[in-house]
Specification:
Elements: H1 15-19, E1 27-33, E2 38-44, H2 47-56, H3 62-70, E3 71-78, H4 82-96, E4 111-115, E5 124-127, E6 136-141, H5 144-157, H6 165-168, H7 176-179, H8 193-208, H9 211-227, H10 231-250, E7 252-253, E8 260-269, E9 272-281, E10 284-293, H11 300-313, E11 321-323, H12 331-342, E12 347-349, H13 354-392, E13 400-407, E14 415-422, E15 425-426, E16 432-435, H14 444-460, E17 469-473, H15 476-489, E18 495-500, E19 504-506, E20 513-515, E21 519-521, H16 536-570, H17 577-587, H18 590-595, H19 598-602, H20 609-619
Parallel strand pairs: 8-11, 11-12, 13-17, 17-18
Antiparallel strand pairs: 1-2, 1-3, 4-5, 4-6, 7-10, 8-9, 9-10, 13-14, 14-15, 14-16, 18-21, 19-20
Helix pairs in contact: 4-11, 4-12, 9-10, 11-12, 14-15
């Protein structure tokens, strides 16, 4: 008879049995918790060895010790090579967003300059999104001021168009930029493509940091123009040279290697860490970015390797060299992968001495300072959330707060907004809007019920995370709707409160106007809770509530404006569905149709000269038609 003490604990993950089937091959492993959520995705050149290390390596970290208790399964996918494992890991992390992986957030907060070299007349434009194979990207820039300043220099001195394609293709006369000699006017003027392409290449040289080479070219052209008595052209080259000198003076020289380098530094305390990335272009420091993460109990090597593959495979600029603060077992495979992505050789190095090692040390020092600065702010926010939990008697720390508001106006479409605060700070990428569908009259209670029901059904479907605290803009009635929704859906582990604005009261005799204090309504409590005025807890709730109100109003106005523009085009005599579609397709929006000239309108397929005049008269009744003919 077997000794019961020798039997495996059914509540613990049987890693020994799993190790028997995991191969000693390159690939990716997925750790799946008992709630069927993927909590971590990793890759290795030897799957069996890596997975075994978590359970038999004597790792003291708390998370690793908890693995047998929280895991339900470890799945694995064998890859043909270590390089393929890197790609697969980055793809799966982006898809599943596991809790304990480093997750590369959306780059929309960072600004880039893009040159669409596929266009006949390329221009330089600001963008917050990078798309592969859609032109050349330069950046990211550390601030909006930096990118606007650079764009201003380009627009003043490099003679490229600034107008979008829709304007370029529909102009009938040159704009102001042509008049002040900042654009050659390719929209209507006979411009040499060879000359324009040269301007484009010079702008790209400036953005690439090849200013000394560009300056030498311009000095030669300035002297040639001067000798041929073309003084106006020589003055133009002189101004370009001055702009380049100014840019060179503002850039800090940090290396003697005239190549592009990305330099990483890391600083960690427990499960929190900061990665600092320095952009060195042709020996000059152009900017830095910091990436901070929580719940990262896996080794630094895994964190950096996973981050790098996600970062560069998402379309970010790949330099000649990537300098790291520690050795990676996948460094060679990473270099091969990045070389293929870039189309030229890329080295992934861990320098031990010399100028490159000093760059890594500088990045690490910056990572330390960034971590300290953020840690102070995070500690204050955590203390604030603890106070809020205590004051409102919440069942859990309100790490994720969601606030809902309803907006309607004079029978127009009713909308709802959901704003999200994580860790006491806005998480704008999580904001959502709802068009109320089942309520046709002004009924805030019914509208709130519909919005909350649709929102929490997404949680039950596994699409959206569950909040810790729901804040409703309103009083007892709105709170009752929220409590009913959660009860109907069987959700009992989410705290709910309502925040009501103070009421304005006027004394009839003294005519003194007073405002009562803001009130917090809690489920099961008759009287509202009054938080101390000017307290940090009340300020946070007010900020969340006001943000939800602002978001709802903004969305409602957007819908009304869109509806107004659409209806205005429908009112034009003789313009039916087919002509409306043709106009929108040609101009891109109703607003551009309204501002178009008769000549521009007559270029639209299906719009005759007579109809073009009718459309122009409708939108410009105060302008003499003769002036546009």
């Amino acid at each position: 008879m077997d000794d019961a003490s020798s039997l495996p604990d059914p509540d613990l993950f049987d890693y020994k049995a799993k190790l028997e089937v995991i191969p000693e091959s390159p690939g990716v492993y997925l750790m799946i918790a008992k709630n069927d959520k993927i909590v971590y995705i990793g890759k290795s050149i030897n799957l069996k060895s890596r997975v075994r290390s978590y359970f038999t390596g004597g790792d003291p970290r708390p998370f690793v010790k908890r693995l047998p208790k929280i895991l339900k399964e470890i799945e694995f996918i064998v890859a043909p090579s270590e390089k393929d494992a890197l790609i697969l890991e980055a793809t799966l992390i982006k898809k599943h967003k596991p809790r304990y992986n480093v997750l590369l957030k959306d780059d929309k907060n960072y600004m880039w300059l893009r040159v669409d070299t596929r266009s006949e007349w390329p221009r330089v434009e600001v963008t917050r999104f990078r798309k592969k194979n859609q032109g050349r990207y330069f950046g990211p820039y550390p601030s909006s001021f930096a990118v606007r300043h650079t764009l201003g220099v380009l627009n003043r001195h490099f003679m490229l168009r600034t107008c979008p394609d829709a304007v370029l293709n529909n102009r009938s006369r040159p704009c102001l930029q042509y008049q002040i000699k900042r654009c050659p006017g390719p929209c209507v003027m006979d411009v040499s493509t060879e000359t324009y392409d040269r301007h484009v290449q010079e702008a790209i040289m400036f953005l690439e940091g090849r200013q000394p080479e560009l300056k030498a070219r311009l000095v030669e052209r300035m002297m040639e123009a001067s000798s041929e008595l073309e003084y106006e052209l020589a003055a133009h080259y002189r101004d370009q040279i001055k702009a380049i000198d100014s840019a060179l003076q503002s850039q800090q020289m940090v290396a003697t290697h005239y190549i592009d380098q990305d330099v990483f530094g890391i600083y960690r305390e427990g499960d929190r860490l900061t990665l600092q990335l320095m952009f060195v272009r042709r020996g000059k420091l152009q900017g830095t970015r910091a990436f901070s993460f929580k719940d990262q109990e896996f080794p630094d090597e895994e964190v950096i390797s996973s981050f790098i593959s996600q970062y560069y495979l998402s379309g970010n600029t790949i330099p000649h060299e990537v300098l790291l603060p520690l050795e990676l077992e996948s460094a060679d495979a990473m270099g091969t992968l990045l070389s293929e992505e870039r189309g030229r050789k890329v080295q992934v190095l861990t320098p031990q001495r010399g100028s490159k090692h000093k760059l890594v040390e500088t990045a690490t020092i910056n990572a330390t300072h960034t971590f300290r600065a953020q840690q102070g702010g995070e500690d204050q926010l955590e203390d604030l959330l603890i106070k809020l939990q205590k004051k409102l008697r919440l069942s859990q720390l309100p790490e994720r707060i969601e606030c809902f508001d309803i907006s309607n106006f004079q029978g127009k479409p009713i909308v709802g907004s959901m704003v999200v605060f994580e860790g006491g700070a806005p998480a704008s990428s999580e904001y959502r809007h709802f068009k109320v569908q089942d309520v046709t009259e002004q009924d805030d209670f019914a509208s709130m019920y519909e919005v909350l029901t649709r929102r929490f059904k997404r949680t039950l479907q596994g699409d959206w995370p569950k909040p810790d605290l729901v804040v409703i803009d309103g009083g007892k009635g709105q709170l009752s709707q929220a409590v009913t929704v959660l009860s109907d859906l069987g959700i009992h582990d989410v705290d709910v409160i309502a925040l009501a604005k103070g009421r304005v009261e006027r004394d009839a005799q003294s005519e003194v106007v007073t405002r009562s204090l803001e009130r917090v309504f809690l489920p099961g409590r008759k009287n509202p809770l009054i938080l101390r005025q000017n307290s940090a807890e009340l300020f946070l709730l007010q900020r969340v509530r006001d943000e939800a109100h602002r978001s709802a109003i903004t969305f409602h106005r957007k819908l009304r404006r869109k509806e107004t523009l659409k209806s205005s085009l429908e009112e034009v005599p003789g313009v039916g569905i087919r002509r409306r579609k043709a106009l929108i397709k040609h101009f891109g929006s109703v607003k551009r149709v309204q501002s178009a000239t008769v000549g521009e309108l007559s270029q639209v397929p299906g719009i005759s000269g007579r109809m073009a005049r009718e459309i122009f008269r409708f939108f410009n009744s105060d302008i003499a038609l003769d002036a546009e003919l």
